[in-house]
Amino acid sequence: MQRQLEATDRPWIQVTDASVVTPLTFEGSKISVGIGLTVKSVGNSAAMEIGPKWQLIVSKGAGTVIGPIIKKQEEVCSQKRVGAFAPLTLFPGQSSKDVWADALQLNSWVNDITDQITELPMPSKPKVIFPILVGCIDYQSSFGTHHQSRFVYSLHTNGYFIVGRNVPVGQLRWDRYAFGGFDVN
Fold this sequence. Notes:
Layout: H1 2-9, E1 13-27, E2 30-41, E3 47-59, H2 66-78, E4 88-90, E5 95-96, E6 102-106, H3 109-112, E7 118-119, E8 127-140, E9 146-156, E10 161-162, E11 173-176
Antiparallel strand pairs: 1-2, 2-5, 2-6, 3-4, 3-8, 7-8, 8-9, 8-10, 9-11
């Protein structure tokens, strides 16, 4: 009986928007960019202990096969949630904007992703990257059942992300990943 009630009255959290909150910067072997997520409770009961798990990664570009990205997402989402974010509770129909605004860093990325840097076929051969955010929103029902809503966003600008060239907030936007990275389980 409890399982049937949980299936029909369970909470569902949806990521409805991602905003850029800090510029894309390169500092030594680190890349950093900020994101703020807007989430909405679209289920039939309260979602409790809501919090993000996420990681900034890079790919070779728009043609990247989705498999490795989803594999990284699964790795990130299977880890225990840690961090300074206070858990949130949302009731059906409620939203929370930019609730987890944070600057994401990819440390020592030059060593970790050398094979993910693309050289453009131009005389100066600039090196470019394609930042991607993978993650999920963790939450639980009043019955204590754990749930996740997964997401993949790619960072976009006018032109390319050239390694070493900072990009201001006004020239950045987070978009849902083209391969439909919104897996809700």
